[in-house]
Specification:
It contains seven helices and seven strands, in the order αβαβαβαβααβαββ. It is an alpha/beta fold and 209 residues long. Helix 2 (61-68) links the parallel strand 1 (51-55) and strand 2. Bound molecules: S-adenosylmethionine. S-adenosylmethionine is lined by residues 7, 11, 55-58, 76-79, 82, 102-103, 120-123, 126-127, 158.
């Protein structure tokens, strides 16, 4: 089974996001593995008028939220089923686009630049950083922000067959890796889990100088 097929199986087994969250919103950004938990989009600064790329955009719901706030959004996901679901739910939003592609392949062929690159439990977690980060950096506008989340090192999580190793890193390791690939002002936060749950979430932000 190819990597795309493997992620497609995972996509088909994934539950769609609810239409309304606990506070009555119809779109929202969810950095963590828990519903109604964690910081919102404010950790990115204002996104109005900014070009956002999401690598591993899944059902497109996080990207759609940023587009409702005035961003333009390009979602990229390796699994064809993800593009279908994302287009069905969010394709009518002006300024949003979804594409089936492997993240490194997309970054190699695009000539666009982005102000915000996002990856929520997405490609940044699953693709070798020495391959992916230089490609991301090349496509980022000066002052742009890369933000991604994943489980803290040592936790369980999605790992479809053939996905290879997940790139779990400690905060210090992300600091060194991102700085080594030309990012600056690396900020790593550990988001506590909700009450009764054991595993938190790592949120990493870094800037293109
Ligand atoms: C755990 S899911 C998270 C999806 C979404 N970001 C969310 O928060 O609901 C990981 C996603 O990354 C995609 N993905 C994994 N490796 C990828 C790659 N190399 N290029 C593009 N997408 C990838 C998968 O198909 C899947 O949709």
């Amino acid at each position: 089974m190819s990597l795309a097929e493997s992620w497609d199986r995972y996509a088909v087994a994934s539950k769609p996001r609810r239409t309304v969250n606990a506070t009555g919103d119809t779109t929202w950004l969810n950095w963590t593995q828990y519903a109604d938990h964690g910081p919102n989009e404010s950790v990115l600064g204002s996104v109005a008028g900014r070009r956002v790329l999401e690598l591993g955009s899944g059902s497109g719901s996080n990207l759609a939220h940023l587009v409702t706030l005035g961003a333009t959004g390009q979602g990229v996901d390796i699994a064809p089923a993800r593009e279908t679901v994302a287009r069905e739910r969010w394709g009518d939003l002006p300024g949003i686009a979804f594409r089936t592609a492997e993240a490194t392949a997309f970054l190699k062929e695009t000539d666009e630049t982005f102000d915000v690159v996002l990856s929520i439990f997405g490609a940044v977690w699953f693709v070798d950083s020495d391959t992916l980060l230089p490609l991301i950096r090349l496509r980022m506008a000066p002052g742009g922000i890369l933000a991604f989340s994943h489980l803290p090192p040592g936790s369980q999580g999605p790992k479809p067959a053939k996905s290879g190793l997940r790139h779990d890193r400690t905060p210090d390791e992300w600091g060194r890796t991102l700085t080594g690939h030309g990012f600056s002002d690396v900020r790593v936060s550990l988001i506590d889990p909700p009450e009764g749950r054991a595993v938190g979430t790592m949120l990493v932000r870094a800037f293109a100088a």
